[in-house]
Amino acid sequence: MAWVYLLIAGLLEVVWAYGMKLSAGFTELGASILTIVAMLMSFGLLAVAMKSLPLGTAYTVWTGIGAVGSFAVGVAVLGEAVTATRLLAAALILAGLVLMKLSSPQ
């Protein structure tokens, strides 16, 4: 179950990162509330996952999901640039996530 919590926590990290972008420096109320709620839920689920997963694995996977997911949202929703270098960077992060999962004792 810890991996499920960690996956959801990572996806919520993407939500709060996108919400933070939409909040325009916390000047847009709706987006600011979304950001704070998603952030609290993400941190809470990360904490629950860390009860049974190693710190390094849990934190790395959480931030990796957030990084790659935020990159994908930036490209798909916000029209950010897609370059070979950015795609390679995202692929390397994804490869690191897979290796962390495979190297975890759970």
UniProtKB/TrEMBL annotation:
InterPro entries: EmrE-like (IPR037185), Small_drug/metabolite_transptr (IPR000390), Small_multidrug_res (IPR045324). Coiled coil: none annotated. It is a multi-pass membrane protein. Pfam families: Multi_Drug_Res. GO terms for cellular component: plasma membrane. One of its GO terms (biological process) is xenobiotic detoxification by transmembrane export across the plasma membrane. Keywords: Cell membrane, Membrane, Transmembrane, Transmembrane helix, Transport. Gene3D superfamilies: 1.10.3730.20. It comes from the Bacteria. It is found in: Cell membrane. Signal peptide: none annotated. SUPFAM superfamilies: Multidrug resistance efflux transporter EmrE (SSF103481). GO terms for molecular function: transmembrane transporter activity. The chain crosses the membrane at residues 33-50, 57-78, 84-102. Belongs to the drug/metabolite transporter (DMT) superfamily. Small multidrug resistance (SMR) (TC 2.A.7.1) family. Gdx/SugE subfamily. This is Guanidinium exporter. It comes from Pleomorphomonas diazotrophica.
